[in-house]
Structures are given as structure tokens and as C-alpha cells.
Amino acid sequence: MVREKEVENKFQTLTKEIEPKPKILRNCFRAFFVGGLICDLGQLIMNFLSRYDLSSGDISNITSIIMIFLGGLLTGLGLYARLAQYAGAGTVVPITGFANAVVAPAIEFKKEGFVFGVAAKMFTIAGPVLVYGIGSSVIIGIIYYVVSLYG
């Protein structure tokens, strides 16, 4: 038992010595830059749509639909994963990251069928985001309602 702990400690020491150190500044810059570019693309789409006789709500909805479509398309083509490998968290935060989180598991489990593959696994990553997002919005709505009654 003592020998096993010695071997485990030696293994941990060796792995820490040869493990590459993360380049935090570079990773932060890439995430900021790529995330900003994704958001700039969304703003460009909004600016383009504002030329037409659309309400601001319609412009926002159409922009969201286009960005989700682009995220899903890039995921399907295998390009979003490569972009995410380069940019890290910069691809997770925008709406395209949510599209990627839904489409990637659906593609991965397609071979298991539409019910037990695509439908069952589609929200494995995005599911908790939806649950806590919807749950917290309900709680905030109730708080807002109560405060507005007595405020």
C-alpha cells in the first residue's frame, strides 16, 4: 500500500513536470478576438436588416435565426469545432455557441437513430443551460411581479 502511494506520488510529480503550461494571455486574446468577431457579424446582419422596413423586434429575431443557422451549419461542416479549438471560450458565449451545443451531440449520435440518438442526446450539453435559464427567469419574473405589486 505504501509502495502504491509512492508510485502514485511519483507519477503525479512527473506529469506536472512535463505537462505544458497554458498560455493564458494568448488564450484570452483569442477568445476575446473571435468572440468579438462573431458579435460583429451579428451586428453587421442587424445593420443590413435595418435598411428594410422592419421593426426592431423583427430585426433581432431574424438576426438570431441567422446566427443560429450559421452556428449549426458550421458545426455540421466540422468548422465550428476547429474554430473552438483555436478560440476556446470565445465561441461558447455567443448564440452560435448554443447552436453548436445542440447540433454537435445530434450529429454525433445520429447513428443511434432519431429517437434514441438525435432526440435523446440533442440537449445533453444545452439542456442544463435551458433548465437553469428558464428556471431563473421564472424566479426573477415572480420577484418582479411581487415587487411591482407592493412597490
From TrEMBL:
The keyword Phosphoprotein does not apply. It comes from the Bacteria. Keywords: Membrane, Transmembrane, Transmembrane helix. The chain crosses the membrane at residues 29-49, 61-80, 86-107, 114-147. InterPro entries: MFS_trans_sf, Spore_V_AC, SpoVA. The keyword Signal does not apply. This is Stage V sporulation protein AC. It comes from Clostridium cibarium. The lineage of its organism: Bacteria, Bacillati, Bacillota, Clostridia, Eubacteriales.
